[in-house]
Amino acid sequence: MIKSPRFDIDLDKHYNATVVIACDCGHETRHHLASLHPDKQLHCACGADISMPAAALDLAQRRTDALKASYRVH
Known about the structure:
about 25% strand; Transposase
């Protein structure tokens, strides 16, 4: 079973979502949510695999939707 990476969601002033992926080494990698795909390989600066499986991307999208709803943005 693949371990899902730890991540957080940031919204910019236009409410576009950026996923901040935390690596075990302490580095954080930022990617726009719209540009992430389940089959896209992502690596930390240390070389560790920080790819996000489909379930993690679905969770990121749900968190983004919840954040936008809390700000009353559609």
